[in-house]
Amino acid sequence: MKRWGRVLRWTAIGLLVGVLVLEAVLRGVGARMTREFEAGQKKSLEQRDCLTVLSLGESTTGGLWCDPKDSYPHQLERLLTQEYGRPVCGYVPMHFGQNTSQMYNRFDRYVSTLKPRLVIFMCGANNTWSLEESNIGRFLDLTNLDGLGLRMRLTLDRSRVFKLARMTKYGLENWRTKARDDLKGGAQYTPWPPPDENVRLGSRNQKAFLEMWKFEVGEMIDRSRAHGASVILMTYPAYDFPSPSDFEALAAAKSVPLVRSDLMLKPLLAPGLAERYFFEDGKHPRPDGYGLMAAELARLIDEQDLLGIRSAPTASNPPR
Fold first, then answer.
1. For the domain that residue 45 is a member of, what is the CATH number?
2. Which of 13, 75, 172, 234 could form a disulfide with 259 if both were Cys (CB 3.0 to 4.6 A apart)?
3. How big is the CA angle at 182 (ends 179 and 185), to the nearest 5 degrees?
């Protein structure tokens, strides 16, 4: 009996050591892949010698169902390049279906690698159902089961070994691709349609999700400025969470300009107009809708010199 006890004990110790070694290897490989990936991004932007505009959002920023060149960031890129006569690079990290925590968790890497002149935020609509990597556990009351259970799962998700095991269980057909993206620091995707338990948790805890949004976007605004970048907040064309009034309050608190996409585009959901400006879901703009957003952003950027073009040092205007 004692012998079997020793065998089980040493087996458990061996498994634990093996898991810790695998965790260390995965983290080391991931750190290297992330550095190589970001170095490639940085080199590409440096070769273009452009002013970078970083746009953070989800499907309404990436241009779901549109050719990527017709999304608002890339239409804005062309307008600004034409206006200033020098390259402007619109950079959009792919966050289809993702949450502000995933952006917040990677934001320091974005600004240090890309060195944007301007950061545009139109994000938060997915927070209540997209829970991968979410920081919502910090904002939920841990005396309720919602907060306790979610924090436990998200804590386990910090382990590369745990995430790898979950990927192989639930996505055997493409787990290798997901694992490679995860090692490079890519954000994980919540399935669509979202699991019912996510939807229920989101509907029960909207106040906590709004507090998380305020904190994360507010912190990213502060970090943008600390890196010398200007900031614009922009409301959604047709989503109501966070609401336009939430965006207004945050813009006022942080003293940043706000573009009201809802005022521009919601009236265009009227019969006879919607087919031109929106896809059938009434949430995602078509190219003409994105064009209106890009034009308003370009006007504001020029009016407030948010890329620092007119204030840039020249022979007649040397730096002080």
1. 3.40.50.1110
2. 234
3. 155
259, β-bridge pairs:
234
Residue 288 has a CB neighbour count (10 Å cut-off) of: 13
Cα angle 171-175-176, degrees, rounded to a multiple of 5: 165
Instruction: Name residue, tokens 């890339």.
Output: 74
For the chain, how are helix, strand and coil distributed in percent, rounded to 5? 60, 10, 35
- Provide the residue range defining the domain that includes 158: 41-304
> What whole-number distance in Å separates Cα of residue 116 and Cα of residue 224?
8
Domain contains 316: no
Q: Is 306 helix (H, G, I), strand (E, B) or coil?
A: coil
Residue 121 burial class via C-beta count within 10 angstroms: exposed 0-12, middle 13-18, buried 19 and up: buried
pLDDT in tens, 86-110: 999 999 987 778 899 999 999 999 9
Residue 89: φ, ψ to 5°: -105, 120
SS3 238: coil
Count of domains in the chain?
1
pLDDT in tens, 291-319: 999 999 999 999 999 999 987 654 433 33
Whether 7 maps to a domain, the answer reads: no
83 vs 315: CA distance, rounded Å: 22
Residue 119, beta-bridge partner list: 54, 231
Instruction: Give the largest CA-CA distance in the chain.
Output: 89
Mean pLDDT, the chain, whole residue set: 83
Q: Does residue 253 lie within any of the structural domains?
A: yes
Predicted TM-score (pTM) of the model is: 0.82
Q: What is the C-alpha separation between 103 and 82, in angstroms, rounded?
A: 30
Model pLDDT for residues 66-88, shown as the tens digit of each residue: 999 999 999 999 999 999 999 99
d(CA 34, CA 115): 17
